[in-house]
Write a structure and sequence with these properties.
About 80% of the residues lie in helices and about 0% in strands. The two termini are about 15 Å apart. The protein contains six helices and no strands.
Length: about 190
């Protein structure tokens, strides 16, 4: 019966391993991405100062700001998700084929390509949201007469915090999806 089969499979699933893998994945993603995020916000602060956007009260200069490090961010996420997908298939194989000698599972190229496109979209949305927030802070500073230092400090602190939260949320959601997909692919390929 399907209910007894589910019970057998659930006893073989190593939920603790999955949970620990997710924790390691998030920590690894954040460790690699935090320096990039810091560079992004430090770079924005430097550009805002150099372009004298607040002092000149010229918002047209804002359009010349560039968020640096986006290709690196995209590359890290793509690499980490591909690793998670491969690891998930391997974990599923070890759960089902305990002690058996098996070949390393092949990645599903179509799924990884789709994931890459999703990651590209996320990074684009990330850039848009960061720049929208920066623009709001600059407009507030111009209207209230705040000095540039107040804006660059807020950008660095708030921007980093919001970006890290966004990145952690995205990484966790995608990791879960990638792990589930990898495990299902193995089960389908192996006939389990």
């Amino acid at each position: 019966s399907s209910s007894s089969r589910g019970a057998v499979v659930s006893r073989k699933v190593d939920f603790k391993l999955i949970e620990n893998t997710m924790k390691r994945f998030k920590a690894s993603v954040m460790a690699e991405c935090e320096p990039i995020l810091k560079g992004m916000f430090d770079g924005l602060a430097d550009q805002i100062t150099a372009k004298k956007i607040i002092q000149s009260q010229d918002l047209s200069r804002f359009d010349k700001l560039k968020l640096k490090g986006l290709p690196k961010l995209r590359k890290i996420l793509r690499k980490k998700f591909a690793e998670a997908h491969r690891d998930a298939k391997g974990q599923a194989a070890r759960e089902i084929l305990k002690g058996a000698n098996y070949k390393a599972p092949l990645p599903n190229e179509a799924f990884l390509k789709f994931l890459e496109e999703e990651t590209f979209q996320y990074v684009g949305d990330f850039e848009y949201n960061v720049m929208k927030g920066v623009r709001q802070k600059i407009v507030e500073a111009i209207k209230s007469g705040k000095p540039i230092t107040s804006v660059t400090g807020i950008l660095t602190d708030e921007g980093m915090e919001l970006s890290e939260t966004s990145l952690q949320r995205y990484a966790t959601t995608k990791f879960t999806e990638v792990m589930n997909r990898g495990r299902m692919e193995f089960f389908e390929e192996s006939g389990v």
